[in-house]
């Protein structure tokens, strides 16, 4: 009766990929903010779907804060990993951070679901989600449920599809 399962989600990815913009979009419209600034450290946000109540750790992606991520891995029950699909130069950095995440002792042996958002699809030079998936070698992830969606956080396109998928492995 209105009781939703609580799920802790870690929102990870490089700085400027659009994590905070995405999380803001998933919140009810009366809770959304207009101006989004680069995250300092991290911020805790909440949003609900029909069956789940999400608590999101929206981490800063800036290099100097990335060492904070691992302290929250144990508490995370799902991961949203955001990629700037137009940032070709840093795709290799995104892959390095993903590989570090996947090899971390608090993540490595868990069937934690990972939702990838190939974001900024509206940018003229954005790579397709298939290309992003290839560059990040996602097909090598065999021991965790994962899914990639092409998104535009400015319009919200693709976000719902991703969250709908995430509900499956969390049920
Ligand atoms: P950090 O907090 O520094 O790790 O960055 P972040 O990943 O939270 O990125 P943030 O949400 O702050 O967005 C960075 C910039 O990208 C902002 O200017 C957003 O408006 C812009 N942005 C986010 N998503 C999109 C998108 O889908 N398309 C376009 N064109 N711009 C986007
Ligand atoms: Mg942010």
Describe the structure.
The chain has 171 residues and is of the alpha/beta class. It has one domain (5-170): 3-Layer(aba) Sandwich (Rossmann fold). It is 25% helix and 24% strand. The protein is built from 5 helices and 6 strands. A hairpin with a 3-residue loop joins β2 (42-48) and β3 (52-59). The longest helix is centred in the middle third of the chain and has 12 residues, at 91-102. The radius of gyration is 15 Å and the shape is globular. The model has no long low-confidence stretch (mean pLDDT 97). Magnesium ion (MG) binds next to α1.
Number of strands: 6
Distance between the termini: 17 Å
Highest CATH level, the class? Alpha Beta
Bound molecules: guanosine-5'-triphosphate, magnesium ion
> Do you know the CATH architecture?
3-Layer(aba) Sandwich
So, the CATH homologous superfamily?
P-loop containing nucleotide triphosphate hydrolases
**Which series of helices and strands comes N to C?**
EHEEEHHEHEH
**Strand arrangement across the biggest beta sheet:** 2-3-1-4-5-6
Low-pLDDT parts are none
Number of helices: 5
Largest sheet: 6 strands, mixed
Global structural class: alpha/beta
Quick gist of this model?
It contains five helices and six strands; from the N terminus they run E-H-E-E-E-H-H-E-H-E-H. The chain is an alpha/beta fold.
SSE map:
Layout: E1 5-12, H1 19-26, E2 42-48, E3 52-59, E4 78-84, H2 91-102, H3 105-108, E5 114-119, H4 129-135, E6 146-150, H5 159-170
Parallel strand pairs: 1-3, 1-4, 4-5, 5-6
Antiparallel strand pairs: 2-3
The protein binds guanosine-5'-triphosphate and magnesium ion.
């Amino acid at each position: 009766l209105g009781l939703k399962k609580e799920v802790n989600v870690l929102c990870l990815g490089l700085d400027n990929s659009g994590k905070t913009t995405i999380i803001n979009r998933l919140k009810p419209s009366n809770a959304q903010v207009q101006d989004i600034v680069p995250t300092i450290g991290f911020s805790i946000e909440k949003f609900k779907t029909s069956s789940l109540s999400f608590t999101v750790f929206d981490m800063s992606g800036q290099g100097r804060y990335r060492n904070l991520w691992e302290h929250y891995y144990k508490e995370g029950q799902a991961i949203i990993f955001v990629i700037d699909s137009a940032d070709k130069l840093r795709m290799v950095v995104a892959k390095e951070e993903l590989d570090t995440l996947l090899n971390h002792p608090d993540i490595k042996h868990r069937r934690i679901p990972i939702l990838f958002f190939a974001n900024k699809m509206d940018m003229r030079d954005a790579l397709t989600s298939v290309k992003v998936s290839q560059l990040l070698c996602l097909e090598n992830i065999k021991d965790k449920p994962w899914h990639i969606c092409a998104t535009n956080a400015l319009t919200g396109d693709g976000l719902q599809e991703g969250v709908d998928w995430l509900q499956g492995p969390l049920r």
